[in-house]
TrEMBL record:
TM region(s), chain numbering: 6-27, 39-57, 63-83
Claim: Transmembrane helix is one of the keywords in the record: yes
Keyword Transmembrane annotated: yes
Taxonomic superkingdom: Bacteria
Name of the molecule in the record: MtN3 and saliva related transmembrane protein
Pfam families recorded: MtN3_slv (PF03083)
Gene3D superfamilies referenced in this protein's UniProt entry, alphabetically: 1.20.1280.290
Keywords: Membrane, Transmembrane, Transmembrane helix
Amino acid sequence: MDFTIIIGLIAGEGTTFAALPDLITMVRRRSSRGMNPRMAAITGSFQVLWVVYGALIGSTSVVLWNIIAVLVNSFTVAAFVFFRRAEHGRSTPAPA
């Protein structure tokens, strides 16, 4: 295996799973306290562009790593919303 490919795989894995500790912490605490979903949403948005870029240049590894990263960031934002609603109650009344 080429050294360049090894570096790319390591870098892809590192950046892909960088948000995972925040997600795990939030799920274990069952709390959104201390989390900023904006960062995950911004990062996830740009990772979508990386998926497009990877497809345009024909790089399977760029596409796959970033699809996984988008999923991790999406789960982080979804968990934030879920726990935030649980912490503050359903402040929005049900439609009549």
